[in-house]
Amino acid sequence: MEARGSGGNVRAVVQRVSQAKVDVAGQTVGAIGHGLCVLLSVGQGDGEADLRYIVEKIAGLRIFADNDGKMNWDVTQVGGAVLLISQFTLHGDVRRGKRPGFTAAMAPDAARLWVDRCAEALRALPIAVAQGIFGADMQVALTNDGPVTILLDSQKTF
């Protein structure tokens, strides 16, 4: 397998949901029923391999119940959707104090393109994808189903 990005890492918090939506200025801009709510942060140095890794992991997570009630099916097998929300604060570093630093996060203009490419790659599988608005003050509401929450990192730091 090709090495992932040099020094960067894309991070995601993936929650299995029965419903999720994101509002901006009081208006719903993205909503899904059954599926995955994904909070995504892109790190400096992330590249094509990081993109492929995170898309494959999101799409392939076997966290939905099969006919026997075991977590065996992925989002495509249950006809679910993805609500993809950019959240650079996943790269917040508080190791040196209580106020987070965000120097490991990719610059906004580049990160916006990267998040959109991630959404397009998921749609190509095909998975229905709704999105928040990059850089906006968003309010996210969801019903975590299970609850099931998975952390992903393209450099496998957790």
What distinguishing features does this structure have?
alpha/beta; 8 strands; six-stranded mixed beta sheet; 37% strand; D-tyrosyl-trna(Tyr) Deacylase, Chain: A; 158 residues
Describe the 3D structure.
The chain is of the alpha/beta class and 158 residues long. The protein has a single domain, classed as D-tyrosyl-tRNA(Tyr) deacylase (D-tyrosyl-trna(Tyr) Deacylase, Chain: A), CATH 3.50.80. It has 2 helices and 8 strands; from the N terminus they run E-E-E-H-E-E-E-H-E-E. A hairpin with a 2-residue loop joins strand 1 and strand 2 (27-32). Helix 1 crosses helix 2 (108-123). Mean pLDDT is 92; it is low at 1-6.
Topology of helices and strands:
Layout: E1 11-24, E2 27-32, E3 35-41, H1 48-60, E4 64-65, E5 71-73, E6 81-86, H2 108-123, E7 128-131, E8 138-153
Q: How many DSSP E strands?
A: 8
- What is the makeup of the main sheet? 6 strands, mixed
- End-to-end distance: 19 Å
The top level CATH class name:
Alpha Beta
Strand content: 35-45%
Number of helices: 2
Mean pLDDT: 92
> What is the name of the CATH architecture?
3-Layer(bba) Sandwich
By helix and strand content, what is the structural category?
Answer: alpha/beta
Rg computed from alpha carbons, rounded to a whole number of angstroms: 15 Å
